[in-house]
Design a protein that fits this description.
The protein is α/β, with parallel strands linked by helices and 449 residues long. It has 3 domains: 158 residues, Rossmann fold, CATH 3.40.50; 144 residues, Glycogen Phosphorylase B (Rossmann fold, 3-Layer(aba) Sandwich); 110 residues, 3-Layer(aba) Sandwich (Rossmann fold). Helices cover 34% and strands 21% of the residues. It contains 15 helices and 19 strands. Strands 3-2-1-4-5-6-7 form a 7-stranded parallel beta sheet. α5 packs across α8 and α8 crosses α9. It starts with 7 loop residues before the first strand and ends with a strand.
């Protein structure tokens, strides 16, 4: 999809809402911004809440993506809509449209809810328009998060030239912690998500009450990770509407994953584990699953090794995702990311900025925990501008984002920050920056006064 110098990309997302889909939407917008594309979160009211003054869920504030509540309806702009909100396609008339199939089942269930809600009063109001694979929407481009979604839309008549694979990835914080899992500490525990295929799982549990079954519910992300770090097995007999997150988190945490052959779990791309770990429940019995669990308990190391290819693919998800975004938009891959000033907001900041400007460079971030707060914006007497709950230093017609150290570290790992510029750092300061960011020497820029 062609990008023009004035193109703006609007990524629609429910406000104040945290699931895998919104996280992927923020990852996507942040990746586009890292390549210099003007991308925005386009928030709409979610089923749970809508705080128009602060629509960004706390989990996604660290991405530092600007947001809007309406898109400029121009031919050069692009609107990216998830499969469960296709009614948003039909308000603008000129903008180019992308339908992102993060889930197949969510599309179908959304249509079912839309129609069933009209049964109560069919004349209350007209049906909202929605995407239905008709000629009217032949201009729509399609992103698919999974092989399962690709097969589904091809079955429904979408040509290959209209399909772009744009998957997702687990966040680096999870992967870093997962890399520290000690397999020798694994116990004969089976973790499962009661929201996924519990009608099948409860029968399996009833047939083996002696096994230590642990539901993933009412847990914080760190608690989920702690459970997966000690469990030997994770089972999922849900619909697998796309490349689900928890099976991937489980396998990189050292669990052996067992799945029912439904949705994305049927093919060998989305969940590329040997057939012995996939169960067609039309032909398998709960006893077959239990026998496999006991086999894994007894021969854990061998079973774990058989899923090495699945783990390797997940560890490469982020690189593949970036390449998929680059290919989908025809982006030139050089010059990704921007410069951050990690020494904080001080007397040398303006001097360092001037030195960068002489080299035709402009920093995107100043890193300072206190200066990034709402309190500091109030005290600065106009020096710091606060917009969309973020602080900025205005410099001529440019705005430099002032962010916390933790957010800076996250954005460095994400690729939004590519260089760290320092003014006459001491050896101790340089060592501390290298250690905190895990920075490559090539990514450090040092200047003398």
């Amino acid at each position: 999809m062609k990008l023009y110098p004035d193109t703006k990309v609007y990524v629609t997302c429910p406000a104040n809402f945290q699931t895998g889909g919104p996280e992927l939407a923020h990852q996507f917008a942040s990746t586009l911004i890292s390549f210099g594309v003007r991308a925005y979160m386009f928030y709409f009211k979610s089923a749970t809440s809508f705080n128009k003054e602060d629509p960004v869920h706390d989990a996604y504030k660290k991405y530092h993506v600007p947001y809007t509540f309406e898109a400029e309806d121009k031919p050069n702009n692009i609107l990216v809509v998830p499969e469960a909100a296709t009614e948003m396609f039909y308000y603008p008339k000129k903008i180019r449209r992308v339908l992102w199939w993060m889930s197949v089942d969510n599309y179908l269930s959304h249509l079912m809810k839309m129609f069933s809600s009209r049964l109560k009063d069919t004349l209350a109001k007209s049906l909202e328009k929605f995407f239905y694979f008709g000629k009217e929407d032949s201009d729509v481009e399609h992103f698919v998060q999974s092989e399962y979604a690709r097969q589904f839309i091809k079955l429904n008549g979408i040509a290959d030239k209209k399909i772009h694979i744009v998957e997702d990835y687990l966040n680096q914080t999870f992967l870093t912690r997962a890399a520290q899992v000690d397999l020798s500490r694994k116990k004969n525990i089976v973790a499962y998500n009661p929201q996924k295929g519990f009608e099948v799982v409860k029968v399996i549990i009833a047939d083996a009450p002696d096994i230590d079954w642990r539901p993933i519910e009412n847990m914080t992300p760190p608690q989920v990770q702690e459970l997966l770090a000690v469990a030997k097995v994770y089972i999922d007999f849900g619909n697998h509407p796309g490349k689900d997150r928890i099976p991937r988190e489980a396998v990189v945490s050292g669990c052996v994953v067992l799945v029912g052959k439904r949705g994305a779990a049927i093919n060998d791309v989305d969940i590329n584990i040997p057939a012995e770990f996939k169960f067609d429940m039309a032909g398998s019995t709960p006893r077959d699953v239990i026998d496999k669990i006991r086999e894994v308990f007894d021969n854990f190391q061998a079973a774990h090794e058989k899923q090495a290819a699945y783990r390797a693919r997940i560890h490469d998800d982020k690189n593949r995702f970036v390449n998929e975004v680059v290919e989908a938009f025809g982006i030139k891959k050089n010059n990704r990311g921007t410069i951050a000033l990690p020494q904080g907001f001080n007397d040398g900041t303006s001097q360092l900025i001037e030195k960068l400007k002489r080299e035709s460079l402009m920093p995107g971030f100043i890193v300072d925990d206190f200066m990034s707060t709402a309190e500091m914006a109030k005290l600065s007497e106009g020096l710091i501008i606060r917009e969309q709950n973020r602080n900025y230093l205005r410099l001529d017609d440019k705005f430099i984002d002032i962010i916390s150290r933790d957010d800076a570290k996250f954005l460095y790992v994400e690729g939004r920050i590519s260089k760290l510029a320092l003014l006459e750092p001491s050896e101790e300061e340089l060592a501390e920056v290298k250690d905190f960011y895990g920075a490559n020497v090539d990514n450090l820029m040092t200047f003398s006064p």
